[in-house]
Amino acid sequence: MVKVNFDAAVCRSKRKGSVASLARDSQGRVLAWHYRTVNHIYDLLILECIACRDALLMALHRGFKNIMVERDSLIVIQAANGHIFPLVIQGLIKDIEELGLSFNSISFTYA
Prior knowledge:
With 111 residues, the protein is of the alpha/beta class.
């Protein structure tokens, strides 16, 4: 089981955000990481969804089959688990759901 964490940050004055993700094994060793700047998007909820999607893409490209996705973004984790979510993130949640089908096992945990 690979544990995947993601995060996002906003810089409203520069009208951009950044997203990052990290994959670790059961001993806590870093297996992969990803970071990028997202220009012209500075809504934290949208950036958190982008970070989650990027985390799944990273895990998929690295060949991880069993992952546990963990984050403190309750809305994103609830949405990924099938709960009601704001319409503004509908497309991103659909991407996350479809990417989730690529794994043998995947869980989304609020931490």
